[in-house]
Amino acid sequence: MGLSPKAIDAFLDEYAELREDICYNKKSGRKISACLPMHTFGFPVHLDELITVCDKWNIPLVEDAAESLGSEYKGKSTGSFGKLGIFSFNGNKTITCGGGGAIVSNDLEIGKRAKHLTTTAKRPHPYEFYHDELGYNYRMPNLNASLACAQLEQLPFMLGSKRELANIYRDFFAEQGVNFRTELPDTKVNYWLMCVELESKAERDLFLKVTNENKVMTRPIWQLMYRLPMYNHCQRDDQKNAEFLEERIVNIPSSVR
Ligand SMILES: Cc1ncc(COP(=O)(O)O)c(C=O)c1O
Fold first, then answer.
1. Which of 65, 104, 105, 125 is deepest in the core (most CB within 10 A)?
2. For the domain that residue 182 is a member of, what is the CATH number?
3. Which residue's CA is minimally distant from atom 10 of ligand 1?
């Protein structure tokens, strides 16, 4: 799903330039701080190709793995490829502790920095309160964290149950001639949100109408960001892949059984 790495490279060629090993946006002159792939619905993106592009342009990779806890690319967990990765434990995710999430990194310095900024930038001290920069109160309360630990133990069960459901859907939709999205080579999907790809927007709209009228909750994908008022001025490409998918993809019930 999403932009192909070749298209991203072409996009960067047009919009970016390398100066002293730092990548800048040609139009705004601003530094490109990171490339932030997102593994939509738990389907891993083409990480190898993306890493090649990022290395070429000296752009750090930061993975938004909010939806893809348990997904793998070439046998390695999504979220563990970039300098940083994030997971969400929001109520709608594969495991939850009510809200919040986790930042992961193999770089100790980045990990310490993330912890400092997310815990109000308070300097460690037994009783003094001194904040040495602007920080954020994003720490997870212990109560939620204990729930997250218990949920993590359930993760293999959740993933197995979702995979069983995905297999049932795969067989059912194959018989109906409907494209149920499954794993691509080299990937393992957590099946957080399962989806079908329909032939056209008209077919999608009919599918949404009939299922919802029959009390089966299905829904279209989220609004494309550039259509939202606060982002519609942002630099972007023609979004034709996103628009293609928006017209055809429907999420179907995906809960653990
Ligand atoms: C791709 C993606 N990124 C980020 C988030 C935000 O995570 P949270 O709700 O834990 O803030 C979500 C969903 O909630 C998401 O799906």
1. 65
2. 3.40.640.10
3. 88
